[in-house]
Amino acid sequence: MIIYPAIDLKDGACVRLLRGEMSQATVFNTDPAEQARLFQSQGFEWLHLVDLNGAFEGKPVNGQAVERILGAVNIPVQLGGGIRDLKTIGMWLDKGVSRVILGTVALREPELVKEACKEFPGKVAVGIDAREGYVAVAGWAETSNIKALDLALKFEDCGVAAIIYTDINRDGAMGGVNVEATSDLAFHLTTPVIASGGVSSIDDLVALKKEEHTGIEGVICGRALYDGRIDPAAALELLSAAPVSGDAA
Fold first, then answer.
1. In the structure, what pLDDT confidence band is assigned to residue 147 with cuts at 50, 70 and 90?
2. pTM of whole model > 0.70?
């Protein structure tokens, strides 16, 4: 299971939000590239980047910060936020992003996601952010009447690399990851699922690891890494171990 340290970009700085509220931002590093280098030096094998301003504005905003990160590390990077068309997808992949994350367009233009998967095989993930089980878009400013599973099922056969599932109410709140909802989603899909939102301790990683057999391939971790609640070495050792049977938990 892969652990993805999160670098959320707001106004050029590395921040964490509380439940997706832009007004509830804590700045952890004013130099995102430095933060990326630190994560690489700690042994992480991927980075998860989000252009928060871009998610709200529907176009890339923190592009310079992303490019500096890409120049600072040699581990793969996945990027979401404000990526709404094939041109932007191609632009980021050309610049060195390994995988783009499509969120808002996955709900509003599912055919675009399918087209992107054909044009850029293995390079497209779908971000499904849910509030009380229903998909939220546009930087979580709008909640739809579509359930997370129903949206995920639309992309089962088109080559999506992963579904990144975030429980918005848990995100940044240190209340624990929603293991039940994440494992239930993974169980119903053949597409791998990456858990996100609420990871607050090594115990959350243990709980997710026990559900790896359902199809949970990775977990995104933000605030708990920044404030020291999770030790990088311990997390990497735990998640790189052989899968744990759910029955043995």
1. very high
2. yes
